[in-house]
Amino acid sequence: MDLKTASALRRLRLVSAPEAISFLLLLVCSVLKRTTDFNAVPVMGMVHGVLFILYLIFWLDAWMRAKWSAGTGIWFLVLSVLPTGGFFAERRLKREAEDAVIASRARQEGVVNA
């Protein structure tokens, strides 16, 4: 994995958890708006919207650089629209990055898969 691909995956990973948190907070704010006089939906809506757009930009960049299959790319897109999907995306991206580091070190040491 080259440096640009690793950076793209890292950016996607870093924005996935905050995007999921903002989605959950937006849901809470929506409930509070309807049950109390508290209305933070406009602010949380904007925060979540910005994070969601960043997620989409970083998702597209990661998909193109990592050369994911259509299924993998669409899976990360589906995770972005689920309330807790960003947490699952972050965990899977972390595992993928760790696997890439292990593979890179094995190539540097001359270890070949049997």
From TrEMBL:
- Chain ranges passing through the membrane: 39-60, 72-89
Its primary localisation, in coarse terms, equals: membrane
Cellular location of this protein? Cell membrane
The protein's matches in Pfam families, at most eight in alphabetical order, are given as: DUF3817
Recorded topology in the membrane: Multi-pass membrane protein
UniProt entry tagged with the keyword Membrane: yes
Q: Where is the DUF3817 domain?
A: 9-95
- What's an example GO cellular component term for this entry? plasma membrane
| Keywords linked to the UniProt accession | Cell membrane, Membrane, Transmembrane, Transmembrane helix
Q: Which InterPro entries match?
A: DUF3817_TM
Q: What is this protein called?
A: DUF3817 domain-containing protein
